[in-house]
Design a protein that fits this description.
The protein is an alpha/beta fold. Helices cover 35% and strands 20% of the residues. The longest helix has 17 residues. The protein binds pyridoxal-5'-phosphate (PLP).
Length: 271
């Protein structure tokens, strides 16, 4: 009898498509594969963008999204879900049904604004994230600006994290790559323990796609069965390494090198 090949855990990635391959589903597929898991990709939106900024987002029709999700879930056993860019508010129903049906770790990168400055979420989609999706999340990974937008009117990021935890998600990792600080500091907040600060040397960017890379690597680590503390550290270490070897694919921001180290030492623009 032939033994079937051992299969990698599946990470359902609900993400936008970025044609330059820095962010969105391509980032997810590469980051998930680099952890030894397999990405099952369902696109929420097509985008018009380059390495500078996002020009346009065109959401996938909610019925098509729902049909793809139902088809995939009938066939595949998903071990974790990563949600990135939400195409529009009408997609929330199908996404919630998927999350509730799978009952696996859910990582949400609440994509509200591109690094280049474009707004990527209407007030309605940001509100839906906050009220419907974030309460279902295992971990959310907002950057500092996203945390402030999701929890407005609070003085500190600690207070923002408290407000987001109060929505019902189990863990919040606020990333500090977008802050004007000497180091890139990420802070993990949870209900049970004191905040944990990770201090990373600030690399010469700017970068495009770091947030997607982090959230999908984290989802893959959870899919592989890693505990949350180990998964958070492994995923951040991986992202730091990808950024340290970032590559130039356009004339704007650098994109993380997620799959292979540079062939020639010193080839990276950061070295
Ligand atoms: N495009 C898509 C599809 C995204 O998901 C994101 C962020 O998650 C972006 C663009 C913006 O990425 P960044 O802010 O890293 O440039």
């Amino acid at each position: 009898m032939i033994t079937p090949p051992a299969s990698s855990p599946l990470v359902l990635c609900l993400s936008g498509h970025d044609p330059v391959g820095g962010a969105g589903l391509q980032a997810d597929i590469e980051a998930v594969a680099a952890q030894g898991a397999h990405a099952v990709g369902v696109i929420t939106a097509l985008t018009v963008q380059d390495t500078h900024n996002v020009r346009r987002v065109s959401a996938v029709a909610p019925a098509l999204l729902a049909e793809q999700l139902a088809c995939v879930l009938d066939d595949c056993d998903i071990a974790a879900i990563k949600l990135g860019l939400l195409g529009d508010i009408a997609q929330v129903v199908a996404i919630c049904e998927t999350v509730d049906r799978c009952r696996v770790p859910l990582v949400i990168d609440p994509v509200l604004r591109a690094g280049g400055g474009a707004n990527l979420a209407t007030t309605a989609t940001a509100q839906a994230l906050l009220e419907v999706l974030i309460p279902r999340a295992t971990v959310i990974t907002p950057n500092a600006a996203e945390a402030r937008r999701l929890a407005p009117g609070l003085d500190t990021l600690d207070a923002c994290a408290g407000a987001l935890l109060a929505r019902g998600c189990a863990h919040v990792l606020i990333t500090g790559g977008d802050e004007a600080t000497a180091t890139a500091d990420n802070v993990w907040y949870s209900h049970a323990a004191a905040p944990v600060r990770y201090v990373w040397p600030r690399l010469p960017g700017p970068f495009h796609g770091a947030g997607c890379t982090l959230a999908s690597a984290l989802a893959a680590r959870l899919a592989l069965g890693e505990a949350i503390d180990a998964a958070l550290l492994t995923a951040q270490t991986y992202v730091h390494d990808c950024l340290d070897h970032a590559q130039r694919v356009g004339r704007g921001r650098l994109i993380p090198r997620r799959l292979q180290p540079p062939a020639i030492p010193g080839e990276s623009p950061n070295r």
